[in-house]
Amino acid sequence: MITWSVIGIVILIAIPFAAFSELVVDHEDLSFFGRGKKKKK
Predict the structure, then answer these.
(1) Residues 6+ apart with CB under 8 A from 36
(2) Positive/negative CA dihedral, 25, 26, 31, 34
(3) Per-position pLDDT tens, the chain of length 41
(4) What dihedral angle (degrees, nearest 10) is formed by the CA atoms of 15, 16, 17, 23?
């Protein structure tokens, strides 16, 4: 059953994960996973 506590936990987990993934995708020049060597054309 979906309750307010479940929604709160999902939001608390989803927001930091989304922020981290946006940082990785938007700033590819940071060499987190070795992908920083590629240049955008």
Answers:
(1) 28, 29, 30
(2) positive
(3) 889 999 999 999 999 998 888 887 776 655 555 555 555 55
(4) 110
